[in-house]
Specification:
111 residues; mainly alpha
Length: 111
């Protein structure tokens, strides 16, 4: 007899194994799909692991693409600023006046 609060150790094999073997034909009749899918479980776990790795790769690629997109946007802004500067300096002066406020809006590394 075991003391209260302590569980008796589970037998390994023995009665449980005999019961499983006895119920196998019943289970085979009542749940054939479950038994067929039981073999698929390890394949599905492997496939899930491969898909998880692929998702990680895609997330890394997205991060790289986002960094590249940020750099492209920064460069496009710089090109727009340089275009504005060239427009202000190159257009004939007699057609318009150069507004110094426009030049002050540009970043110092543009001028």
């Amino acid at each position: 007899m075991t003391s209260p609060g302590r569980r008796s150790p589970r037998p390994r094999g023995g009665v449980q194994t005999a019961l499983r073997r006895a119920l196998w034909p019943v289970r085979r009749v009542l749940a054939p799909a479950a038994l067929e899918f039981g073999g698929e479980l390890s394949r599905l776990r492997t496939e899930r692991g491969l898909l998880h790795e692929r998702v990680q790769e895609l997330e890394n690629q997205v991060a790289v693409l986002q960094e590249g997109l940020h750099e492209a946007r920064r460069l496009n802004l710089r090109i727009a600023e340089l275009t504005d500067l060239v427009t202000e300096l190159v257009l004939p002066l007699h057609d318009r006046e150069i507004d110094p406020a426009v030049l002050q809006r540009l970043r110092p590394d543009t001028v």
